[in-house]
Amino acid sequence: QNTAIFDKDEFLDRMMDDKDLASLIATEFMRNAPELLNQISDHISRDNPVEAGHTAHSLKGSAANLSASKLVDTTFEMEQAGKEENTVKLRELLPTLKILYSELENALKSAGY
Predict the structure, then answer these.
(1) pTM of the model
(2) Hey, which of 57, 63, 75, 82 has its CA 20 to 30 A from 30?
(3) pLDDT, one tens digit for every residue, the chain (113 residues)
């Protein structure tokens, strides 16, 4: 199941099988993540890798709450690239980040969140 965009069983375990809490966390993620993605993109386009990395860190925490390991891995790479002030790497990772977010959003909706 580690090839899935998120691990629903692990997510529910994390939420102590509280389906209402899981729904709240998933809804908040879908409400807030697009703005974080926009901020990351804006920081990259303005050649501000450190801020892009900080914002990726915030998105990483939200993705971790959802047990979305692929998104966690990509945001971690972006966070590190930000610390290294590596705008080129951030630009390379941005399309992957957007695809993974889209896949996660679709998976969450398919799972009923």
Answers:
(1) 0.92
(2) 82
(3) 446 899 999 999 999 999 999 999 999 999 999 999 999 999 999 999 999 999 999 999 999 999 999 999 999 999 999 999 999 999 999 999 999 999 999 999 999 99
